[in-house]
Amino acid sequence: MIKEIEDYIQKNYYHLYNIGMKMTKQDPLTRDLLHECIIQLYDKEVITLKSYDDNSIKYYIVAVMRINYFSKTSPFHYRIRRERQIMNVDVATCWDLSYEQEEFEQEQIYQLLELNYSELDWFKKSLLDLYLSLNRSMKAVSRKTNIPNQSISRYINEIRKQVKTDIINKINS
What is the dihedral angle through the alpha carbons of 76, 146, 87, 82, rounded to the nearest 10 degrees? Predict the structure, then answer.
């Protein structure tokens, strides 16, 4: 990243955050959006602007934020927003859990699923996201990731088993 852009971000972080809050209409993911955009700016080796004055830099960063927030193909959508959407889906059907104790309500089980999902490492979480977003098709995940189908099947089954065991242990404790 260019030094001028880095200095601008450090000086005007809260101003950029407030712009993000207005753009997203107070979405709780605004801080994540801003951080994702900063990470993207750090990853870029070359950023060409006509001039490196404060207005040009601000408009550039705001444009990156807008694209990431509203696009369904942006890195922000794939890394953060989709995770939130996946957790709003009826995830209990993904795990084929049999509930032996009826005193646990559905809400508590969803909370346990969300907790276990958030504790997964990045690889398992990414693989699970792909699996759920591609209609639970292991072949589609295999084609998308170039990982053999047998490995995908093994990983998904390990993730299911791990989450199911953790939830059953928490229910029984």
Answer: 20
| Cβ-based neighbours of 64, under 8 Å, separated by 6 or more | 37, 40, 41
Cα 86 from Cα 139, distance rounded (Å): 20
pTM across the whole model: 0.50
Examine the pLDDT at 14 and tell me if it is beyond 90: yes
| Rounded CA separation 49/47 (Å) | 6
Give residue limits of the domains in the chain: 3-77, 90-172
Residue-wise pLDDT for 129-159, tens only, equals 888 888 778 888 888 889 898 888 888 888 8
Pick the CATH number of 90-172 from 3.30.160, 3.40.50, 1.10.287, 1.10.10: 1.10.10
